From TrEMBL:
Comment on bound cofactor: Binds 1 S-adenosyl-L-methionine per subunit. Binds 1 [4Fe-4S] cluster. The cluster is coordinated with 3 cysteines and an exchangeable S-adenosyl-L-methionine.
One GO MF term: magnesium ion binding
Root EC class: lyase
Record's protein name: 7-carboxy-7-deazaguanine synthase
Species whose genome carries this gene: Rhodocytophaga rosea
Underlying gene: queE
């Protein structure tokens, strides 16, 4: 759908330069989704992976973030192999709603109530990033935390439109439950993609 060089705004690698590759197609249906224009896979032309990687190489950063849409609706083996061949670290942003493909240096798993995650993701994820829309989402977040690898990083990220209400509650929650960390969408504060 699009690709752009920017600063990772969320989660563990927040603040680091990265080349984002956003793939079209998602049927999870989050009503608050940031990128609803990604949902219709047919609306976005297919792009050659050689061309994607060639574009990525024009920038100095060597961290690639594959996102969408739901990137795991596509088989990502060939794209990851090519990125690795060209010296990129491969990171993914996923809801986990589809089986894992590709070879990943970093998996950010952001589960959604609207479509259950696939079981394979729990053992593989390096980062759990739960979006907090209302107060009941903290208990929901804990049910996922209990299923993750012990060394999986845990992040709570306010849903953007609910930030002013939820952020103070997230702050108190993290102070009381320090296994969790706050993740903000800092690219939105910086007005960058
Ligand atoms: C647009 S999604 C694409 C990747 C994948 N479909 C997913 O949901 O993880 C990228 C990240 O943005 C988060 N996100 C999307 N809309 C958001 C919003 N309105 N507020 C906060 N985070 C949001 C998602 O939870 C996910 O972690
Ligand atoms: N700067 C920036 N950081 C991001 N981290 C995750 C994003 C995404 O949409 O997957 C995203 C994004 O869209 N922009
Ligand atoms: S799973 Fe990700 S891309 Fe799909 S609707 Fe939800 S936030 Fe948007
Ligand atoms: Mg985004």
């Amino acid at each position: 759908m699009e690709a752009f060089y920017t600063i990772q705004g969320e989660g563990y690698y927040q603040g680091k330069a990265a080349y984002f590759i956003r793939l079209g197609g998602c049927d999870v249906g989050c009503h608050w989704c940031d990128v609803k224009e990604s949902w219709n896979m047919e609306a976005h032309p297919k792009v050659n992976i050689q061309d994607i990687v060639a574009q990525a190489k024009t920038y100095p950063g060597r961290m690639a973030v594959i996102t969408g849409g739901e990137p795991l609706m596509h088989n990502l083996d060939a794209l990851c192999n090519l990125l690795h061949e060209h010296g990129f670290q491969t990171n993914i942003e996923t809801s986990g709603a589809y089986p894992l493909s590709g070879s990943w240096d970093w998996i950010c798993f952001s589960p959604k109530k609207f479509k259950a995650p696939h079981s394979g993701i729990y053992a593989q994820a390096h980062e759990l990033k739960v979006i907090i829309y209302n107060k009941s989402d903290f208990a929901w977040a804990e049910t996922f935390a209990a299923s993750m690898n012990p060394d999986c990083k845990l992040f709570l990220q306010p849903e953007w439109s609910r930030s002013s209400e939820m952020l103070p509650i997230i702050i108190e929650y993290v102070k009381a439950n320090p296994r969790w960390e706050v993740s903000l969408q800092i690219h939105k504060y910086m007005n960058i993609p």
